[in-house]
Amino acid sequence: MDLELFERDRHVTFLQMMYQLLPSPYQSQEINRLTLAYFVISGLDLLNSLDRLVDKDEVATWVLSLQAHPRSTAELNNGQFYGFHGSRAAQFPPENNDNGALNPSVSNLASTYCALALLKIVGYNLSSIDSESILTSMRNLQQPDGSFMPIHTGAETDLRFVYCAAAICHMLGNWSGMDKEKAKEYILKCQSYDGGFGLIPGSESHEAGS
């Protein structure tokens, strides 16, 4: 791309609009609001417009409000994941939840990765968050083959979520949230004959996996 043709100001205006109010076509992506915020705010940061257009303290407060917290340390081993929810709607308790029953956390690895990345972008000190809950419960998501599920209720397992888990450990400066050797073995199994990596063992290699 010819850099002279890159219309920076128009990109900034678009991202500013998305930061202030998401257009109606994005209603179906409400559950992914945290991920959308990551792309918008990281875009403004890359364009050197973050300080001028974004209230960093406000962003940090909003992101922190989306973290799932166990009611006690004993719940960290109940099989659930206590990371970050993708949006406020994801924090609503299920309608069929009887009184006294545990409200299941639907936080997931992708949202947690985006949350921590956002906090770093706005300059928040990650040592201040409840990292123990994230890392201890994240081990519940790693599978025997070294891969990761994105959420404790069950979903596909592939290289994307191994990346999210590794990035989470790196940002928190603590690798206790995963078995690194098993994860490494899984990654190597995803390598194809051409040297690239697929998302799962035996799959076609492509740029996303690599």
From TrEMBL:
GO molecular function terms attached to this record: metal ion binding; protein prenyltransferase activity
Domain Prenyltransferase alpha-alpha toroid: 6-207
Swiss-Prot/TrEMBL keywords: Metal-binding, Prenyltransferase, Repeat, Transferase, Zinc
Domain of life, source organism: Eukaryota
Presence of the UniProt keyword Metal-binding in the record: yes
Pfam families: Prenyltrans
Keyword match tRNA processing: no
Cofactor (UniProt): Zn(2+)
Listed SUPFAM superfamilies: Terpenoid cyclases/Protein prenyltransferases
Record family assignment: Belongs to the protein prenyltransferase subunit beta family.
Name the UniProt record assigns to this protein: Prenyltransferase alpha-alpha toroid domain-containing protein
Organism encoding this protein: Prunus persica (Peach)
